[in-house]
Amino acid sequence: MAQESWLSSAAGGGWRQLPLVLLRILIGWHFLYEGWAKLMQPGWTSAAYLKSSTGPFAGLFHWLGSHDALVSVIDPLNIWGLVLAGLALMLGVLVRPAAVAAMALLALYYFAYPPLFAVTNGVSEGHYLIVNKNLVELFALAVIVAYPTAGFGLCALFARRTAPAASEGQAAQQKQDEPAPDYLGPLSRRRVLASLTGVPFLGAFVLATLKKHGWKSFEELQLRARAADQDTFISSATVKTFQFHTVSELKGTLPHGRIGNLSLSRMILGGNLIGGWAHARDLIYVSKLIRAYHNRDKVFETLALAESCGINAILTNPLLCEVINDYWRNGGKIRFISDCGGQDVLQMIQRSIDHGACACYVQGGIGDRLVEEGKLDLIAQGLELIRRNGLPAGIGGHKLETIRACVEYGLRPDFWMKTLHRTNYWSAALQPQHDNIWCENPEETIAYMNDREEPWIAFKILAAGAIHPKDAFRFAFESGADFICVGMYDFQIVEDVNLALDALSGTLVRQRQWRA
């Protein structure tokens, strides 16, 4: 019979199809994990991805991302399309329809961000010209459509027990004592193994996913449930109790200020801890420790928690561009302010712009160095490059002399980044310095910044953890800061936002007018 000979070919000489089978399963794995990751991320949405679209079809994608009703339909279609197409390709069920559906999804992804000739702004990954990974995977699926290798999948089991209509009629007419048709006969071990090819890969997928994201024992679930009720975690190694605040304890919504057309929350998330820059004085192991803590998933959790608490921007180094872009691709919306730190400031500015920064500034340490070297013209070039790309441009400095020199040179940035903190903590020795003090003359800084008309983002206000946030936040806002940039671990965000709200909602003794 035609069907039997086809199955025999699939399970016999068809083993030569294994490269195509593996290609189908690997693509299925990719789709399944993409869908699963989105499904498991609370609040995931494609809105930011759609709104950041580039290319000739950007208008359509922007329109789709701007309508919540459409996004509420698009998101589940995207997630379940990825999941179901991935499962079907891995297990060999309805291979052709699944491959066609997957091709449609890839085509949409491709046209949302086509790698054409213009410089790519916003979300980007890798370096492409016309051909990118989406297009390559799309054509790989076209091969699967042409050669579905259905003999190596669960569909082969169903097909094995299903006869063509004509054969069924002939079978019905057969006499009772005649042997059963071959297609209803016993399955050979070879055919069974061929049909189950994708099952071990699905098992490996489950184990790998659990390995990456962790599996929870019954005891762990009970402890987590109890911790969620009490917000109390007990460390058995130290027998100490820690109070972790939850989003439900937020006291309100952070107010916003504007730098040009850019609306920013008064508290901005600093990226030093996420990037592994601890400023831990002589504790040389701390930077490695916080880098180990901030794996990809923890970074995503921290950014998502910051967003849920009303913080709408992170200020950090271009080294984290790829992580932030990845977060955006997974539905995150937090804005990215780049300090453009690196050896070549102009190159880092362009890199930041290409990766979707909403504002850029010359990093404080770089600003200090360029002023000392008399290269204020390079700072001016940086401001011009940022503004030419339509973004707010700032200047940073740890030293007050840096800000003074830029003002005297005639530079007028859209905002200033200047350190501010008291110097009454025990490790604040001016000499010798050992990564222990960042604002040597706070009173002079306050007096000088009082006359600046541009918005001021104050940073290092906690002196790298030496000053309690309750004191530091009020001091910064009363001293004239329009925004505060604060590095926080995930378990500190809710408490710090509440402390900022307390400071802003109270009576501030503030001489400088709000400039943002």
Question: How would you explain this protein's 3D organization?
Answer:
The protein has 516 residues and is an alpha/beta fold. The chain folds into three domains: 2-165 and 187-213, no CATH class; 217-245, no CATH class; 251-505, NADP-dependent oxidoreductase domain (TIM Barrel). 50% of the residues lie in helices and 10% in strands. The protein has 23 helices and twelve strands. A hairpin with a 2-residue loop joins strand 3 and strand 4 (262-265). It starts with a helix and ends in an 11-residue tail after the last helix. Mean pLDDT is 82; it is low at 1-13, 120-124, 165-169, 217-223 and 226-242.
- Rg, nearest Å: 30 Å
Give the helix level as a range of percent: 40-55%
Structural class: alpha/beta
The biggest sheet amounts to:
8 strands, parallel, barrel
The appropriate CATH architecture of the largest domain is Alpha-Beta Barrel
CATH class division of the largest domain: Alpha Beta
Mean pLDDT across every amino acid position: 82
Indicate how many domains the architecture comprises.
3
Number of strands: 12
Q: Strand portion, in percent?
A: 5-15%
Ranges where pLDDT stays below 50 over 5 or more residues in a row are 1-13, 120-124, 165-169, 217-223, 226-242
What is the first-to-last residue Cα distance? 80 Å
Strand order of the largest sheet: 5-6-7-8-9-10-11-12
Shape, per Cα inertia axes:
elongated
Total helical elements: 23
